Structures are given as structure tokens and as C-alpha cells.
Amino acid sequence: MTLCNHWYGDLLNLYEYMGKDIFRQYGIPVPNGYVVSSVDEVRKLTNPVAVKSQILLGGRGKAGGIKFAKTDQELKDAVKALLGAKVRNLTVTKVLIEDMLNIKHEYYVSITLNRSARAPTVIASAMGGVEIETVPDEKIFKRIIDPSLGYSDFIGREASTFMGLSPDLSKQFLDLLKKLYNVYKGEDAELVEINPLVETNDGKLIAADAKVVIDSDAMFRHREFNIQDPEKTPLELKAEGKGYAFVELDGDIGVIANGAGLTMATLDALLLHKGKPRNFLDLGGTDNVDIVVNAFDLVLEAKPKAILVNIFGGVTKCDTVAQGIVDAKKKFDIKIPIVVRLSGIHEEEGRQILKENGIEAFSEMMPAIERVTKVF
């Protein structure tokens, strides 16, 4: 059972081609290229190209997700091979075709949020083209940017000296790093990364890759990013549109819980007791009956044989959830068994509401888990 998504908590990961479009807007050098979603969109070849699958995970090269072409036929064959293929278990629906670079050296540079320091941090290394986690610490430059002061060129000069850049490359790097910080600020990013940052044979620095991760709380300022995960089912997309964290699974017990941690713990407990979850639905923190009712609507669409509701009430009050369950049962004429665990604020009132409407409720999680695995 895998829960996989392009949303990382409160972050939105952009495709490479989207990141490079942003880089172009800010004046960061990137290879010439274009995106296609079918072979018919492929243009006549003028230069050797790299054909890069667009997925929301790294490690594409090792997984066969990047190919190279020097002729029109090789290009079409590469696009055909990648479109619809699985790369790192993700379906490729778009490929980026861009000029092949003559690489002299590969560097790494990024600006990311340091949560401990509550400030952006510049990370750079002369060892690029590999996962930064594999690079020895002594080979990595790190410098926190004081948010009250902002970026200053002295940080870039420190980084370029650390990396051993020539005067000409250092000048290019300083300009690029300043623009990268502008991307970080201007696009509400939590990470902007170039790996590799390529030095070409003619001495130019070019962003061969682009990783941009945006704080999803700022998405109201970035309506241009419309990312639909090709791995999501129609029901998952429907749930996302309604604001629910929802994943379809292959079992028969519908699961509604509040908080991602509690929801995952509920799935684990079900599996421990030989139960098979049909879905993951995180109700979040709410005190709204309609949100509970709409959650049932989504879970019922997955056609489970029973539904387990596991609530630890804090922001989410137990009596509110109970009323939502009762309203959903009446509205959707639910015939399958519903088992509920309610604990927290107004738990006794909530369990009384359920009892009066013939719905079984527990104060502890494990008895509810054991019960739901035996009701069908």
C-alpha cells in the first residue's frame, strides 16, 4: 500500500518544464526546449536533444526516463518510448525536448527554507549531478540568509570561492544566484534547486534541471499552476477539488479519520487485524457537519463494505461529527455497517447521538478496529 502524491504536506512540487519556464522569466539561463504530450507535436530536429520524462520524482536518468536523440527518427522513437511509460512507478504524460548540452562540469545550487532557523538557506557544491545527500558535508557550502536583510552578493562570493569558480564563472554565478533568490521570494517557494548547474565547454553556466517547490498556502497567488497528477483516480481528483486528502486503496473498509497521522495509524491498525482499507480520507480539523456529510459521499462512491470513522476530538468536536454521520446515513440511505470511535471534546454527547440512531460507537480505537473487521 503506497500513498504517493505531488503534494508534500503543505507544499506543491512543480514539473521541471514549469520550473524552467519560471527561470526564463527571471533571466536564469536554461536550454532551449519545448514540451509535448503526443508524438504529433514533435518538431523537426535542428540540434541533438535530450528527451526528458516529466514526473514529480527525481532519479529519472537511472530509471530510464531520459533519452537522447541525434536524428528525427531517434527523437520520435524516444518520445514514443517515454509517453505512457512508467518511470519510478509514475506514468509519463509529458516529455520535455531540449537542446543537448556540451558539459564540462556539473555544480549544485539551491535556496531552501531552513525550518529550524526560520530563514532561507543557500546550499551550493562543486559536486553536482548527484543527490546532494550523497555529497560529503565538507564539500557543501551552506549559508543562512537573514530575512530582515535579504540576499547580498557577499554570500554569492563566499559560495563561488568555496566552489573554486574561475573569475568569469564566479561573475555568472553571482548573477544567477541573485536571480534564484528572486525566484524563491517572488514565487512563494520553499525550495528552488538547480541540479545540475552545468558549465558548458564554451564557459557558460546553464540550469540543466529545475526543481521548484511552492508553499501551497500561497496558491491563490499562483492560479497559473494547474497540476493534475496522472496517478490519481477520478474519485481522488474529485476529492481534491472538494478539499479532502483522499486516496483510493484496494480493500473493502472505508476509512474516515481526522489528521494524517491518525488516519495512517488507523490504516496500520486495520492491516494488523487483517482488515483491508478501501480508502484514506483525512477529515482534517473541522467543526462543520456538512464537511462530514460530504466525506461520506466520497467514501460511499468507493463502494466499501463497511465504514470506520476514527475521531480524536480537539478542533473537531465529537458531537459535530456524530451529527454529520447521522445526517449522512439518512441522506444517502446507508445500509452498510458504520463503526465509530469518538474520543475527545463532547465525546459522550457524540456517542449518545449515535446510539440513539442505531450506530455503534467506541471510546477507544482498537475495539472499533476489531469490530469493523467482523461486521461483514
From TrEMBL:
Gene3D superfamilies: ATP-grasp fold, A domain, ATP-grasp fold, B domain, Succinyl-CoA synthetase domains. It comes from the Archaea. It holds the Pfam family Ligase_CoA. Its cofactor is Mg(2+). Residues 20-255 form the ATP-grasp domain. GO terms for cellular component: succinate-CoA ligase complex. This is Probable succinyl-CoA synthetase, beta subunit. It comes from Thermoplasma acidophilum (strain ATCC 25905 / DSM 1728 / JCM 9062 / NBRC 15155 / AMRC-C165).
